[in-house]
Amino acid sequence: MNKDEVKMSLELGLIVMAGDSMLAAFLLAPSKVVVRECNIPRPSRGEVLVRVRACGVCPTDLRYIQGLRLYLPMGEESRGLTGHEWAGDVVEVGEGVEGVSVGDRVVADHILSCGRCIFCKQGRSNLCINKRYYLRGYAQYAVAHASTALKIPPHVSFEEACLTEPLSTCLNTLEKLEMGPGSRIAIIGDGVIGLLHLQLARLVGAEAMVIGHHPDRLRVAERLGAVLAINSKDVDAVDVVRRETGGLGADKIVVATGGKSAIGDALRMVAPGGRIGIFAGTYPPTSIDLDPNMIHYGEVCVIGIMEHTPHHFERALNLISRGFIDVKQLITHRFPLEKINEAFEVVKSRRGLKVIVSP
Ligand SMILES: [Zn+2]
Ligand SMILES: [Zn+2]
To answer: Do 123 and 183 fall into the same domain?
Structure first.
């Protein structure tokens, strides 16, 4: 590198010197997020240091910030928060790293499974009991495990790559619910997750109805090919789904919104032999009333969807990069790191869809 190149690389944050500092978000107390300077982390063996270019806000981040996930650190230990939908440029590689180099544009899976436990051996590494999480994406630099880092094709932007993680978990739903050509699917929830499921359903030749109560999001659902976008504020969604399916109910239900009532609705709109996938967490925890006879006589399967495997992650990036899933339409807001609190406010108020923070 000549002098000018070095200068430019330094300005772009592509060269990190020992002791350099960066900006990162910290959670000092519930609902108290601040952005301040701290040391740039160093990659250990097998890890890479990434100059984060974009980090998508996930509703689970909000629960953490509101103090609903108390097992996660607060205060000094909270650098970068739970940011996990992040992508950027590799600026340093740790010892023993192969296949990832400085200068690569990458998106890394935040989940590192052990590969040795019973679940990993069964190919269900999303249930790994020795999982490690690489979060901390609300910072200018973050560490990723090299084995999970995928190169982003040049035509895919960093912010589009941020949707790899949510999409990978939706791919898990696709398998668990056995969605296929001709399936009639009801998706409860008109947020990013609902709209990703909608696109996957279309991709496999299924018919999908989307249920929500945000007119702007329901319009996107229509644009993305929902056979019906149902506003549950105006009509009884269970009635509509039953009517549209000739009284039978939908074959597959994706519950892409938290809370008791969505699950109750799912149980009332599922067809005999149908499957209900509970994708969203419910906070605070609650319990549901459920008629066991419906499960017994109706052979209804209720199943949870939790995270994803490395294989889902790889396929998700591939679907985005090949244009099978339109993530551009789902990105509605962008904020610099300094305005992270505004970004969280937008997500909290359920305005728009995916919100991207650019550190
Ligand atoms: Zn997420
Ligand atoms: Zn494992």
So the answer is: no
